[in-house]
Amino acid sequence: MRNVTHSFVSLGHWPSAGSFGFNTDILSTNLINLSVVLGVLIFFGKGVLSDLLDNRKQRILNTIRNSEELRGGAIEQLEKARARLRKVEIEADQYRVNGYSEIEQEKLNLIKINSTSKTLEQLENFKNETIQFEQQRAINQVRLRFFQQALRGALGALNSRLNNELHLRTISANIGMLGSMKEITD
């Protein structure tokens, strides 16, 4: 085995002019091998790499296009939502204004009702007082008529029964009573 390794080693020391042999210098052989591999990869892998990059580029462009479309749809939906919001805000303001005016109207109606209620209460009290007054007046008129009739009846009875002598005695008795009352008060 020693002869075989020795023969390869001895081949590495041959001068390179006009002969064929193996280069055992690791640094120079790696650079040559690396450049050969890169050249082959570039020559044969150029199409595959180009296809991969084109596919990637198309996917990125499609993603950007889809994102732009989604963005446009989102902006459109946002504008619609803003328009609906403005519309709802306007309606809310109208409801608020209408609500306030209705509240004020109801407040005025309640004030009127309260005022009307007080007026009705006053009218009811006045009516009751008027009824009581009219009842009292009617009672007084009935009493007056009754007394007038009783007085007429008494005067008629007295006049029919009273003669001059009885009349003079009654007057004298009344004058006597008045005189005695006068003495008591003096």
From TrEMBL:
**Signal peptide stretch:** none
Pfam hit, one: ATP-synt_B
Q: Mainly localized where?
A: membrane
What does the UniProt keyword field contain?
ATP synthesis, CF(0), Chloroplast, Coiled coil, Hydrogen ion transport, Ion transport, Membrane, Plastid, Transmembrane, Transmembrane helix, Transport
Any one of the GO CC terms: proton-transporting ATP synthase complex
Q: From the record, what ranges are coiled-coil?
A: 71-98
Top-level taxon in the UniProt lineage: Eukaryota
Q: What GO MF annotations does this protein's record show?
A: proton transmembrane transporter activity
Cell inner membrane as a keyword of this entry, yes or no, is: no
- Membrane disposition: Single-pass membrane protein
What the entry lists under InterPro entries is as follows: ATP_synth_b/b'su_bac/chlpt (IPR002146)
GO terms (BP aspect): proton motive force-driven ATP synthesis
Q: What role does this protein play?
A: F(1)F(0) ATP synthase produces ATP from ADP in the presence of a proton or sodium gradient. F-type ATPases consist of two structural domains, F(1) containing the extramembraneous catalytic core and F(0) containing the membrane proton channel, linked together by a central stalk and a peripheral stalk. During catalysis, ATP synthesis in the catalytic domain of F(1) is coupled via a rotary mechanism of the central stalk subunits to proton translocation.
State the family named in the UniProt similarity comment for this chain. Belongs to the ATPase B chain family.
- Indicate what this protein is called per its UniProt record: ATP synthase CF0 B subunit
Show the taxonomic lineage: Eukaryota, Viridiplantae, Streptophyta, Embryophyta, Tracheophyta
